[in-house]
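Chapter summary example.
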Amino acid sequence: MSSPHDRGSVPPRPKRTARIFALAVFALGSIAVQGCAELHEVATALRETSDFAPTSDPRVFAEPGNETLTAATAAAVPGAIRRVEDALGGPFTIPVRIYVCATIDSYKRFTNSERSGGNTTIAKKIFISPKPENTPQRIPAVVTHELTHLHVAQRLGLWRTRGLPSWFSEGLAAFVSGGGGAEGVTEADAAREIRAGHLLTPGYSRNQTASSFGLPAHLFYRQAAMFIGYLKDRDASAFRHFMTSVEEGTAFQRSFEDAYRADVGTAWGAFVAQLNDPRVPPVGQ
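The structure predicted for these 285 residues follows.
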């Protein structure tokens, strides 16, 4: 069993009243901007998780009935935490808590989702789905994907995290996890679709998702992950500057343009051009 000093180890649980207050503040701000759908999300996030029992890893809790998924999740957590902290350049700032659901109905009750493999809620809890696709082989990527979301959310807070563009949030999580969330589409598949004109066009809006571009989710995640990888590989120093600035709460557009000396559309254009001609110079040069 992990010691209290391990990465992501769990100190005493935060008081529920503090969590309720933080989520209530988030709800009031969200409702003023977007309406009552956000209130439903907050109500879901506040559901009690006391029926989830501790497991072999103190950061993982599980409902009885799916021991295989529970064991795979607990085994994946230490390596996934190391991978995320190494990729994003710092430790998790609050305890990691992962909940393994035994049924799809339970997963939906805590996440409002039936189809996803994992979900990081606004209460900064991760839930793992028992859907058949979540095999022991896939679980490490799912856990790493969700931990990437959690790492960003812990540093930015609820409100600013929700303001990030979807291509960035999902692309970063898919990139760090080695393709988690994009398993159905290879890089070769994604490149072929880009050349055929079936592609995302990244911007600064939080409201553009896969459906905004008429893309299946796995294709959207894979293209976004490839773009993140391009940005990192072409200029690792600029990427570190960009990520640090984002996680410190600087506006996303300013973070990107200060780091890369170009807007995101120009950077994306350079990435697409490179798919056809690797001799194209990196963005910003």
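To summarize the output: The CA atoms of residues 105 and 236 lie 43 Å apart.
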